[in-house]
Amino acid sequence: ETNRKGSFQNADYSQEDSPSIFGNISFDRKLQENDMGRPPQEWLRYDYYNESCPFAEQIIRSTVRELYELRPDVAPALLRLAFHDCFVEGCDASVLLDATDVMESEKDCLPNESLKGYDVIDIIKSELEESCPGVVSCADIIVLAARESVLLAGGPFYPLYTGRKDSTVSFFEEATYELPSPHDHLSKTIESFATRGFDERETVSLLGAHSTGTIHCKFFHNRLYNFSGTDGPDPSLDTEFLEQLRSKCNRSHAMPAPSPAPPLSSPSPSSALRILPNSTLVQDPGMKMDYEGPRKSFGVLYYRSLLQGKGLLFVDQQLTSGEETETWVRAYASDVTLFQRDFGLTMIKLSDLGVRTSPMGQVRLNCRKVN
Ligand code: HEM
Predict the structure, then answer these.
(1) Which residues are catalytic?
(2) Does residue 229 lie in a domain region?
(3) What ipTM is given for this predicted complex?
(4) Has residue 336 been placed in a domain?
(5) 192 alpha carbon to ligand 1 midpoint, in Å?
């Protein structure tokens, strides 16, 4: 364990002054192709804003960190936001567009109903607009803010290309039908990730993101009281854990959606300091996933809990039901370094999905609206 901890390279890395766990690894990003059948590196570059906005990545980093100090739930919210953006038609900030008279918004589809962090992105964007107006895309902000969030949650640093452009449309239908459900069986999850180029190992590692954040009762309530119409619990749930969950989530937590996320900021944020404290009472308490304090637990405890029948979502617990996926659950449960490396690589891949460049995209001035 000591040795493992010794080589457990994580959260203290910053891009400038530290080697990352990727330092010695050669990974072939040529294999990752975007929608246009061309590899992302033909469109994107490391340090794309080097000349146009040299402090862009630093501004994103420091703003996320400032907000995190006030509200640690900012980190999981931003990580989930990146997943929901990138998984639907690529990383193009389409998830941030508000509805208009002629366009429905991804924000309003069912799988996104408890998505948060839009106002955090607004704050970061306004900081960037002050320094370099009209330069940094909302799509880059999302993936870079998610990277910072992973670090804050105790995960690895991973290098990211930049230069993504923002979409001019929101994909309500696609988000409604293509975002995975917490009630999905393994085969559906595997298929859904495979469509986007992730194999089983990569899928298992990405779900390690569920090491952090909060899962509201409504997403696993059926497993506690009425699993598949049996009027009883999911037999794959550990019994002690079942009681623990039932004490947090009573029968009445089944139907109502979680209360709308409390605003993280004032309506027109211009500075990180305008953030409000976390004061709104959430009716559905949910379960915190930072098992033993975020920095220690990212990854490994999530997989260990799956091996003990203590996965919160059905979709999580399903990872132990397939031969190959279970092998990776076991591997990650016992090898922190392997998990951190794999998670970083799959986050890179996720962040490069369906990248847009001009003329198919733009740099939005306000992340909520098309220019
Ligand atoms: C089969 C795939 C997945 C499903 C069905 C799924 C579903 C969910 C659900 C239902 C929640 C609870 C939301 C709530 O209670 O408000 C959640 C939370 C979360 N998910 Fe996933 N998820 C999946 C994959 C991922 C991936 C790939 C990532 C990131 C790489 C991710 C990151 C997160 C995070 C960080 C949270 C906590 C959010 C917070 O506390 O604000 N998820 N997910």
Answers:
(1) 84
(2) no
(3) 0.99
(4) yes
(5) 15
Mean pLDDT, 10 residues at a time, the chain of 371 residues: 29 39 44 48 84 97 97 96 97 97 96 96 98 97 98 95 95 97 97 97 97 93 93 92 91 56 43 30 66 63 95 96 98 95 97 84 96 95
SS (H, E, C) the chain: CHHHHHCCCCCCCCCCCCCCCCCCCCCCHHHCCCCCCCCHHHCCECCCCCCCCCCHHHHHHHHHHHHHHHCCCHHHHHHHHHHHHHCCCCCCCHHHCCCECCECCHHHCHHHCCCCCHHHHHHHHHHHHHHCCCCCCHHHHHHHHHHHHHHHCCCCCCCCCECCCECCCCCHHHHHHHCCCCCCCHHHHHHHHHCCCCCHHHHHHHHHHHHCCEECHHHCHHHHHCHHHCCCCCCCCCHHHHHHHHHHCCHHHCCCCCCCCCCCCCCCCCCHHHCCCCCCCCCCCCEECCCCCHHHHCCHHHHHHHHCCCCCCHHHHHHHHCHHHHHHHHHHHHCHHHHHHHHHHHHHHHHCCCCCCCCCCECCCCCCCCC
**CATH of residue 117:** 1.10.520.10
The dihedral through the CA atoms of 355, 357, 362, 365 has a sign that is: positive
Pocket test for ligand 1, best of 210, 212, 289 (most atoms within 8 A of CB): 210
Residue 104 included in any domain: yes
Q: How many domains does the chain have?
A: 1
Q: How do residues 300-354 score in pLDDT, each as one tens digit?
A: 999 999 999 999 999 999 999 999 999 999 999 999 999 999 999 999 999 999 8
Q: In terms of residue numbers, what domain contains 341?
A: 2-216+258-351
Ligand 1 atom closest to the Cα of residue 182 is 5
| In-domain check, residue 244 | no
